[in-house]
Amino acid sequence: MPGDIVAAKDPGAIWVNNLWFQWPSGLSVLQGCSLTVQPGEFCMLLGNNGSGKSTLLKILGGLLQPQEGKWAVEKPVGFVFQNPDHQLVMPTVGADVAFGLVDEHLPLAEIRNRVDDALAAINLLEMKRRPIYALSGGQKQRVAIAGAIARHCHVLLLDEPTALLDPDSQIDLVKRVRDLVKERGLTALWVTHRLVELDYCDRAFLLEAGRVLDEGNPTRLKHHLQNKSSSV
Ligand SMILES: Nc1ncnc2c1ncn2[C@@H]1O[C@H](COP(=O)(O)OP(=O)(O)O)[C@@H](O)[C@H]1O
Ligand SMILES: [Mg+2]
């Protein structure tokens, strides 16, 4: 399979080369999509609704298979969905983070250490015993991220994680993820349509017509997109 484990010598933590993806209906979504995210980078992926952002992330997360192209992602990979209620399955914060570790068959003390470390990293340790239903949307997203940290994920794929959040929680989450990426040497690809979030990333990609139409400095891309939307 082309999308497989890569070693550190490979070109990026996330590497996508000439991906083509079509739904069985015949709808072409990705048409020669290529991008690279270097280890340690916090990158954002922008594009209109339906431009294929979620499709690309699902391919990178191993949830969909493209018809053509090559890709590689440094494992383990953590996925954060737009709606945390689709992702959190256990009754409490600590139990949910621990649940993500079941496949690893770790000793109990190691599980406890991993859960506490992950919750502390995203400032949720004091909520370890809190029921999931008693959390805000932003806190739920932080639990989902803690799950990936506990699994020692190298790469985080975040699909519009702030779409359901109010503006304060939105900025809080983007800053926390940026800090985590920088402090722990992670790599993140974050999908958004909210231009204000571009202020916090290293680099951005614009997906249009199934491929990366523009990429680079997020401030330049932000101004370009702001001018575009104000001219219509
Ligand atoms: N399960 C599906 N079956 C068929 N078409 C789909 C499915 N999921 C998404 N699509 C279509 O694929 C295109 C790309 O969707 P998506 O990757 O979700 O875009 P984005 O995340 O950029 O909004 C859209 O036209 C969407 O309607
Ligand atoms: Mg989407």
UniProtKB/TrEMBL annotation:
<dbReference type="InterPro" id="IPR003439">
    <property type="entry name" value="ABC_transporter-like_ATP-bd"/>
</dbReference>
<dbReference type="InterPro" id="IPR027417">
    <property type="entry name" value="P-loop_NTPase"/>
</dbReference>
<keyword id="KW-0813">Transport</keyword>
<dbReference type="InterPro" id="IPR017871">
    <property type="entry name" value="ABC_transporter-like_CS"/>
</dbReference>
<dbReference type="InterPro" id="IPR003593">
    <property type="entry name" value="AAA+_ATPase"/>
</dbReference>
<protein>
    <submittedName>
        <fullName>LuxR family transcriptional regulator</fullName>
    </submittedName>
</protein>
<keyword id="KW-0547">Nucleotide-binding</keyword>
<dbReference type="Pfam" id="PF00005">
    <property type="entry name" value="ABC_tran"/>
</dbReference>
<dbReference type="GO" id="GO:0022857">
    <property type="term" value="F:transmembrane transporter activity"/>
</dbReference>
<dbReference type="InterPro" id="IPR015856">
    <property type="entry name" value="ABC_transpr_CbiO/EcfA_su"/>
</dbReference>
<feature type="domain" description="ABC transporter">
    <location>
        <begin position="14"/>
        <end position="232"/>
    </location>
</feature>
<dbReference type="GO" id="GO:0005524">
    <property type="term" value="F:ATP binding"/>
</dbReference>
<dbReference type="InterPro" id="IPR050334">
    <property type="entry name" value="Molybdenum_import_ModC"/>
</dbReference>
<keyword id="KW-0067">ATP-binding</keyword>
<dbReference type="GO" id="GO:0016887">
    <property type="term" value="F:ATP hydrolysis activity"/>
</dbReference>
<dbReference type="GO" id="GO:0016020">
    <property type="term" value="C:membrane"/>
</dbReference>
